[in-house]
Structures are given as structure tokens and as C-alpha cells.
Amino acid sequence: MAEIGIVIPAAGQGKRMGAGFNKQFLLLRGQPILVHTVRLFEESSYVSEIVIVGAESDLLVIKELVYHHKFLKVVAIIQGGAQRQDSVRTGVQALSSTIQRVVVHDGARPLLTLQAFHRFLEETEEFSAAIMGIQLKDTIKRVDLSGKVLETPPREGLRAVQTPQIFDRGILEEAHHQAEKVGYYGTDDAALLEWMGYPVQMVEGSQENIKVTTPDDLWLAERILAMREA
């Protein structure tokens, strides 16, 4: 398996959390959310390098966390851009030239397990671009700006997208470069490759691999970790 580098965008301020500071510094089972996220990749034998991309005001705190927890695979902690896409592009550039497979994973998604991550790597080894996602439980409606229902797409063809997302470095960098040239912004990195016409493979994720965005998410994450420990 090729050397894998991890880019963790962690610059979001998390306004929906209402904490008044970066939600990734909130404690989850006594440790910052970001620490849970980084530790997973630090412990993976497949991961060679980790780059964390944060807001300028958070860089010192992130550096202190990395030093305190002895995360030796973190090779760079850098300032993010105006948008998440800008942050990921900068993060990829900070990886060593030997890294040819790049995984992008949300800093606020701390419940990915080592087993699930390694299974993801094995299932996506033959694909140039692959993402994790889960089937939807609820019926989805597409509506217009006034709230009028336009259609009900069948759930069978819909997935809620998660991270990690994995890419061959060359096509990821090309997609970011082309998007930057024309000012195109996608909802995630996979959207850039779709925009460029590259195939992206979806593999099954986990209902527990939640992104901590609101106080309810933090409560749920606490319960999930408590059950795992039990």
C-alpha cells in the first residue's frame, strides 16, 4: 500500500455549537475533540504524515496539543484559507513529495475507529478517488426557496457523505488547481473531482462516524464513546 498522508481541516469556528471558540477544542470524554481525531491516524501503521490546517488564532493551541500528546506523525500545522477547500489545498501542498495517496478527514469527526479506517483503505485501494457514506433513514424532499416540495428522490440512490475521503494525490491537486483558476467551490473535495469528470467511488461508512456540529452531537458522541468503553 502506498504511503498515506492525512490532511485534517480544523479551521471551522463552529457557530452552531455556540461555544464561543473552535468546537474542536471542546472536551469529549475529557480530551479535546481534535485530539481524538489526530490520535486515530497517529496510531495507524498505514499513515506516514499528518497535516493539520487551522485558523490563525488557533495555531498555537493546536501546536501545544500536538506536543503534549506526542503526535510524532504531525509534520505541519498551518494556517487555513478563507474556505475549507482553500485549507485542504494548502494542507496537501504541505505533505512530503513521497506521499502519493491523500486522505482528507474532518477535525470534528472524532469517532472513526481504527478498524473502520483500515477497512476503508483496503476497500478503496484500487480507486483513484473514494469516499465514505451511509444510507439515509429519512425520506428526502427537494424544495424551492419558498418551501414548496418539487420532488421526492428515491432513497436507494442517495447517501449522506462522511469523511475520510481518499484520493490519488495527482488528480486531487489537479482538481484543486483547476477549481482555483476559475473560482469554483465544491461542497467537498470529491465534488471537485466530479466537476472535473473523474469517477468517485462510494463505500459504506458508519452511523457512529458523526461530525460534531451542535450540542446534541456532542452529547451523542459522549454516549457512543461511553458505550465503547463499557
Distance between the termini: 34 Å
CATH class: Alpha Beta
- Strand order within the widest sheet? 5-4-1-6-10-7-11
Q: How many H/I helices? A: 7
Mean pLDDT: 94
Share of residues in strands: 15-25%
Largest sheet: 7 strands, mixed
CATH superfamily: Spore Coat Polysaccharide Biosynthesis Protein SpsA, Chain A
Uncertain spans: none
Q: Please name the CATH architecture.
A: Alpha-Beta Complex
Order of secondary-structure elements = EEEHEHEHEHEEEEHHEH
Number of spatially distinct domains: 1
The gyration radius over C-alpha positions equals: 18 Å
The backbone outline, from C-alpha atoms, is globular
Predict the CATH topology: Spore Coat Polysaccharide Biosynthesis Protein SpsA, Chain A
Query: SS-based structural class?
Result: alpha/beta
How many strand segments? 11
EC number: 2.7.7.60
Keywords: Isoprene biosynthesis, Nucleotidyltransferase, Transferase
Family: Belongs to the IspD/TarI cytidylyltransferase family. IspD subfamily.
GO molecular function, one term: 2-C-methyl-D-erythritol 4-phosphate cytidylyltransferase activity
Description of the structure:
By secondary structure, this protein is of the alpha/beta class. The protein has a single domain (4-229), classed as Spore Coat Polysaccharide Biosynthesis Protein SpsA, Chain A (Alpha-Beta Complex), CATH 3.90.550. The protein has helices at residues 33-43, 59-68, 84-93, 114-123, 169-182, 189-196, 215-229, and strands at residues 4-10, 27-28, 31-32, 47-54, 74-79, 101-104, 129-135, 142-143, 149-151, 159-168, 201-204. The longest helix has 15 residues, at 215-229. The protein starts with a strand and ends with a helix. The model has no long low-confidence stretch (mean pLDDT 94). Its EC number is 2.7.7.60. Catalyzes the formation of 4-diphosphocytidyl-2-C-methyl-D-erythritol from CTP and 2-C-methyl-D-erythritol 4-phosphate (MEP). Pathway: Isoprenoid biosynthesis; isopentenyl diphosphate biosynthesis via DXP pathway; isopentenyl diphosphate from 1-deoxy-D-xylulose 5-phosphate: step 2/6. Keywords: Isoprene biosynthesis, Nucleotidyltransferase, Transferase.
